[in-house]
TrEMBL record, chain A:
PANTHER family: GLUTAMYL-TRNA(GLN) AMIDOTRANSFERASE SUBUNIT A, MITOCHONDRIAL (PTHR11895:SF7), TRANSAMIDASE (PTHR11895). InterPro entries: Amidase, Amidase_CS, Amidase_dom, AS_sf, GatA. Subunit of the heterotrimeric GatCAB amidotransferase (AdT) complex, composed of A, B and C subunits. GO terms for molecular function: ATP binding; glutaminyl-tRNA synthase (glutamine-hydrolyzing) activity; hydrolase activity, acting on carbon-nitrogen (but not peptide) bonds, in linear amides. It is an enzyme of class 6 (ligase). Residues 115-566 form the Amidase domain. It comes from Elaeis guineensis var. tenera (Oil palm). Its EC number is 6.3.5.7. This is Glutamyl-tRNA(Gln) amidotransferase subunit A, chloroplastic/mitochondrial.
From TrEMBL, chain B:
InterPro entries: Asn/Gln-tRNA_amidoTrfase_suB/E, Asn/Gln-tRNA_Trfase_suB/E_cat, Asn/Gln_amidotransferase, Asn/Gln_tRNA_amidoTrase-B-like, GatB, GatB_C_1, GatB_Yqey_C_2, Gln-tRNA_amidoTrfase_suB_CS. Pfam families: GatB_N, GatB_Yqey. Belongs to the GatB/GatE family. GatB subfamily. This is Glutamyl-tRNA(Gln) amidotransferase subunit B, chloroplastic/mitochondrial. It comes from Elaeis guineensis var. tenera. Allows the formation of correctly charged Gln-tRNA(Gln) through the transamidation of misacylated Glu-tRNA(Gln) in chloroplasts and mitochondria. The reaction takes place in the presence of glutamine and ATP through an activated gamma-phospho-Glu-tRNA(Gln). The gene is LOC105055783. The keyword Protein biosynthesis applies. NCBIfam families: gatB, PRK05477.1-2, PRK05477.1-4. It catalyses: L-glutamyl-tRNA(Gln) + L-glutamine + ATP + H2O = L-glutaminyl-tRNA(Gln) + L-glutamate + ADP + phosphate + H(+); L-aspartyl-tRNA(Asn) + L-glutamine + ATP + H2O = L-asparaginyl-tRNA(Asn) + L-glutamate + ADP + phosphate + 2 H(+). Keywords: ATP-binding, Chloroplast, Ligase, Mitochondrion, Nucleotide-binding, Plastid, Protein biosynthesis.
Length: 589, 546
């Protein structure tokens, strides 16, 4: 039903480019693809596939003179790029699509789906003890892989995700596995149905490898508020992977799975993608059906994608997007084959982003943002400029209002959405003598502290007499945020910012300071309030851990412009020099 | 769908009293609630306070009620929930049929399982617009759904999807005619608002009262809540308001309006104040009335109760509370006292888009509306029918259609009304059938009326034919011909028949002549049996006597 094309000359390709079409270079695409190595290989093998190493002159200073930035730049210049072990081996190998590589392996019969699955599951088992990214690992994955091999043998048409091991955040319902939302109150809960996104994955041939850890019901930024376990960061196991989709991000980073699904209410896909050095896609609100996603804040929640390359994120997004009659807020906006619009590196001209207007959000570069993160983002901006785009600063005046507005709206909706976890019909039930203690005790014992905190905040904000001052006011802020994004995106094709104000921090570092934790969401929450799509692509490193810590660049687009973000992200990723985002944990194992 | 286990829970019915321990059983279908006897307790309390009052209210007749009320005025407003007869529920594709086995028409969505989302059934909007137009309301071109939040075991999501500050219709009115036996008169009552919402499940309390079970079949069934202005002043007015609403929803086909099944539920708010006082008295809510007559009686009871408290200077004992109507005891009793206003923390339902109406859509629905009861009554009035006839005919849409069709076929309106209200109505009542279930067509009724009017058959024969037509169908003409029922009016023919019968029954004739006049009936019957039914009894009798 789907076909994946790497670089077809399509009408949509580079629609915003002013320059001539990219020209072919050297060997044919198909030949290159067939020679593609397995996803996890010694990077040295990848070297000779590289066709056209693009070279960029030293960064010209990208922004108008600004003393603050000068300072940052000098800081960046002072701090040497950490050089993790794998990177020294391969100076510049862009990430390649694991999904396409698997497909190629299957079609060429070079590997069986069972072999591929065994490889991933083996790695999953070896790394899981340290990572703890999974709450449940499928018992049927191997069997499903064997079924895929039968399908390949029979010569049947293969879906775009055939044989691809996908991990699913545990707040997304799966009929054959427990779905707890990371909460003890749903400790034993098994849904009666697959979420629409999961259903579409299966229809595309994917194998659901397991359910990943998260902050309880998505409320948190570290996975530390999971009701079950804390996931660690594959780049440094003493650090958090980010959250709430920390498990999904860590799993992709450590190649425990090929790609994964997360959910993003205030940055829960983008921040962990940044922390774990993977690609994270937060689609437009309504792009992906929420049916089967346990609601945290219904007007903000979206299901998002993690991949180790932009192509993988694009293929995954195409598979799960589209209208769903079971979700009235899902959009009927046409879904394009995002991956087919991505050109491979060898087809790129020297200025592939010529004419692209990029706005750096002024409010995201400054106080409260780590210097290393800032310099990485500035380097990324320079990189985009070198690729031909026009980079300017843009101001979103309502930016700082977004954070408090977000926490009011998200908590208010959460207080309502979580009412159903009352111990009456399913999940944890306290032993009680009468109704009010049954409710009280079930919720008091079943829900964790962060969830209770937000339910209380939300209940307060919605109470009679406070509604106007909190909820209504926050909605007004939301309107302002939407408008300021619209204005900025009228003048720019994409906006960029850091995905988080810092790289991954230590486990336990912020657990006693919820406000500091909330402040970490400043880069991402506005995007949810505006319902816009945003893509996080790894763009650099800061010091920390055994091999440095990855930093993600957030690119924000207009509603339903996921295709544009993915194209830009792909070119950015393919042309990024001197960085490889393979975590040390993976190099060790 | 996976089998869903409702586990036993221990709970206190209505949150009023701590209940006795209850053994927990696992794996039992439906959750169970412990019910206490709060009602009884409060009732006893009430009785102690004013046994005498109770008695006097109970014995109050209509007359004494009027006497009681003298100097006081009752203010009555009604909130009516109408269950819509859509094929599927409001936000999922489950059907709903009254009386199906518990928890058989449910799905993950109406059970509120994690991850499920509501999707609005467009029929609900259509029905709401229909009723809004029929109640002369202003429609909101942009309305939205809100969440009304509270915890109760019959509410699976912990909130009810409803409409709060922007209901789909507002500011309407309803016209009605009070029944002749209650003094008649035309009334117009204001409609404050109509909004769409979903129903909750049902708690089934065990006979012993030791536990209750949750049935979610009804959860998610679409309702329209109609809130009236506080325009009613008596039980009759309130009951007639409800009856008119029932008529309306049935005319419109949006609900079966059945009170016993709970498809039409009225919550009545009553306050009493001294006549002339502008400030309202304390409002009391009454629930649990299963018929219009129960409504009438419950309200009059409640008015008397409140007036009595006023008279005795105990008006401070009228508190804001919900009372239930006890049909057996014919009185109201306290269900729960309201402690301040409940905070439902309404906020806009984020899972559903706004409801946007366009003019074309409304116009289309407006054009499809049938003639409504009020218009029908005015039209019948113009046909010269009495108010009693008018009310009877317009009460049931199908009856009215039958009547209209008969008149259209040339039947005299008054005669058609008489036939329908008389023999046909009696038949329907006896056989428990509706007018569209019988074989008689309006056309044949008009034929029948015509045949009687022109003297072809007698009224009595007409009746015979009518029952034949009702049960077996056919045409009046063919029945008359088939049975040779044309009226014999020629006295000579009748005389011959009489002679024949007299000759054949000499014994009886002798007895008759001996004074046993009761035998006249016997002879008439014999003549009747002679071959033709269609003999006018009067000449026949004359023949015998002669």
């Amino acid at each position: 039903m789907y076909s994946i094309r790497v670089s077809p000359p399509g009408p949509h390709r580079f629609a915003f480019f002013a320059g001539p079409k990219p020209s072919l270079c050297g060997e044919r695409v198909s030949a290159r693809r067939s020679a593609m190595p397995s996803p996890i290989q010694n990077p040295r093998f990848l070297l000779y596939h590289r066709c056209l190493p693009l070279h960029f002159p030293p960064n010209p200073f990208p922004f108008p003179p600004n003393p603050r930035r000068l300072l940052h730049r000098s800081t960046a210049a002072l701090s040497p790029q950490p050089a993790p072990a794998p990177q020294t081996l391969t100076s510049a190998v862009p990430p390649s699509s694991e999904i396409l590589s698997i497909r190629e392996s299957l079609l060429s019969r070079r590997k069986t789906a069972a072999e591929i699955a065994a490889e991933y599951l083996d790695r999953l088992r070896r790394t899981e003890q340290q990572l703890r990214s999974f709450l449940h690992v499928s018992e049927t994955a191997m069997r499903e892989a064997e079924e895929v091999d039968g399908l390949v043998e029979s010569g049947a048409e293969l879906g775009p995700l055939t044989g691809v091991l996908v991990a699913v955040k545990d707040n997304i319902c799966t009929a054959d596995m427990p779905s707890t939302g990371g909460s003890r109150i749903l400790g034993s809960y098994r849904p009666a149905f697959d979420a629409t996104a999961v259903k579409r994955l299966r229809e595309a041939g994917a194998i659901i490898v397991g359910k990943t850890n998260l902050d309880e019901f998505g409320m948190g930024s570290t996975t530390e508020s999971s009701g079950f376990q804390v996931t660690t960061n594959p780049w440094d196991v003493s650090r958090v992977p980010g959250g709430s989709s920390g498990g999904s991000a860590a799993a992709v980073s450590a190649r425990q799975c090929v790609v994964s699904l997360g959910s993003d209410t205030g940055g829960s896909v983008r921040q962990p993608a940044s922390f774990c050095g993977v690609v994270g896609m937060k689609p437009t609100y309504g792009r992906v059906s929420r049916f089967g996603l346990m609601a945290y804040a219904s007007s903000l929640d979206v299901i998002g994608c993690f991949g180790s390359s932009v192509v993988d994120a694009a293929i995954l997004l195409s598979a799960i997007s589209g209208h769903d009659r079971l979700d009235a807020t899902s959009s009927k906006h046409e879904v394009s084959d995002y991956a087919s619009q991505l050109v491979s590196l060898d087809h790129l001209e020297s200025k592939p982003l010529k004419g692209l207007r990029v706005g750096v959000i002024r409010e995201t570069i400054g106080e409260g943002v780590d210097l290393g993160v800032m310099s990485s983002v500035q380097a990324a901006a320079s990189h985009l400029e070198q690729l031909g785009s026009i980079v300017t600063e843009v101001s979103l005046p309502s930016f700082s209002l977004g954070l408090p507005a977000y926490y009011i709206l998200a908590s208010s909706e959460a207080s309502s959405n979580l009412s159903r976890y009352d111990g009456v019909r399913y999940g944890y039930q306290a032993t009680a003598d009468e109704l009010s203690s049954l409710y009280g005790d079930s919720r008091a014992n079943g829900l964790g502290p962060e969830v209770k905190l937000r339910i209380l905040m939300g209940t307060y904000a919605l109470s009679a007499g406070y509604y106007d001052a909190y909820y209504k006011r926050a909605q007004q802020v939301r309107t302002l945020v939407r408008k300021s994004f619209k204005d900025a995106l009228d003048k720019n094709d994409i906006l960029i910012s850091p995905a988080a104000p810092s790289a991954a921090y230590k486990i336990g570092e912020k657990t006693n300071d919820p406000l500091a934790m909330y402040a970490g969401d400043i880069m991402t929450v506005n995007v949810n309030l505006a319902g816009l799509p945003a893509l996080v692509v790894p763009c650099g490193f800061v010091e920390g851990g055994p091999a440095g810590l990855p930093v993600g660049l957030q690119m924000i687009g207009a509603a339903f412009h996921e295709g544009k973000l993915l194209r830009v992200g792909h070119i950015f990723e393919q042309t990024l020099q001197n960085h490889r985002f393979i975590p040390p944990l993976l190099a060790e194992t | 769908m996976a089998l869903i286990y409702f586990r036993c829970i221990r709970m206190n019915h209505l949150f009023l009293h701590p209940s006795s321990p209850f053994t927990k059983k696992s794996g039992v279908l439906f959750c169970t609630l412990q019910a206490s006897h709060a009602q009884v307790a409060t009732q006893v309390n009430f009785q102690n306070q004013g046994k005498q009052k109770e008695k006097s209210i109970q014995t109050a007749t209509k007359k004494t009620l009027e006497h009681h009320k003298h100097g006081y005025e009752a203010i009555i407003g009604i909130e009516t929930h109408v269950q819509l007869s859509t094929l599927t529920k409001a936000f999922c594709s489950c059907p709903y049929l009254y009386g199906t086995r518990p928890n058989t028409t449910i799905c993950p969505i109406c059970m509120g399982l994690p991850g499920t989302l509501p999707v609005l059934n467009s029929k609900v909007v259509e029905f709401a617009v229909k009723l809004g137009l029929a109640l002369n309301c202003e429609l909101s071109m942009n309305s939205k759904f809100d969440r009304k939040q509270y915890f109760y075991p019959d509410l699976p999501k912990g909130y009810q999807i409803s409409q709060f500050d922007v209901p789909i219709a507002t500011k309407g009115f309803i016209d009605l005619d009070l029944p002749v036996e209650f003094g008649g008169g035309h009334r117009r009552f204001g409609i404050t608002r109509i909004h769409m919402e979903e129903d909750a499940g049902k708690l089934l309390h065990s006979e012993t009262g030791s536990y209750s079970q949750v049935d979610l079949n009804r959860a998610g069934v679409p309702l329209l809540e109609i809130v009236s202005e506080p325009d009613m002043r008596s039980g009759v007015e309130a009951a007639e308001y409800a009856a008119e609403l029932q008529r309306l929803v049935r005319y419109l086909g949006v609900s079966n309006g059945n009170m016993q099944e709970g498809s039409l539920r009225c919550d009545v708010n009553i306050s009493v104040r001294p006549t002339g006082q502008s400030q309202f008295g304390t409002k009391v809510e009454i629930k649990n009335m299963n018929s219009f007559s129960a409504m009438n009686r419950a309200i009059d009871y409640e008015i008397s109760r409140q007036v009595l408290l006023h008279r005795e200077g105990q008006s401070d004992q009228i508190v804001q509370e919900t009372r239930l109507w006890d049909e057996a005891a014919q009185k109201t009793f306290t269900m729960r006292k309201k402690e301040g206003l409940a905070d439902y923390r309404y906020f806009p339902e984020p899972d559903l888009p706004e409801v946007v109406l366009v003019k074309e859509y409304i116009d289309e629905i407006r054009q499809s509306l049938p003639e409504l009861p009020e218009a029908k009554r005015r039209r019948y009035e113009k046909l010269g029918l009495s108010m009693q006839d008018v009310l009877f005919l317009a009460n049931d849409n199908n009856v009215a259609d039958f009547f209209d069709a008969a008149v259209e076929n040339g039947a005299d309106a008054k005669l058609a009304a008489n036939w329908i209200m008389g023999d046909i109505a009696a038949y329907l009542k006896n056989e428990r059938r509706t007018i569209d279930e019988i074989k008689l067509t309006p056309k044949e009724l008009s034929e029948l009326i015509a045949f009687i009017k022109n003297g072809t058959i007698s009224g009595k024969i007409g009746k015979e034919i009518l029952f034949e037509l009702i049960s077996k169908g056919g045409t009046v003409k063919s029945l008359i011909e088939e049975k040779d029922l044309v009226q014999i009016v020629d006295p000579a023919t009748i005389g011959a028949l009489v002679d024949k019968v007299l000759a054949a029954n000499p014994k009886q004739l002798q007895q008759y002549r001996g004074g046993k006049t009761k035998l006249q009936g016997f002879f008439a019957g014999q003549v009747w049996n002679c071959g033709s039914f269609a003999i006018l009894l009067v000449p026949c009798d004359e023949g015998i006597q002669g």
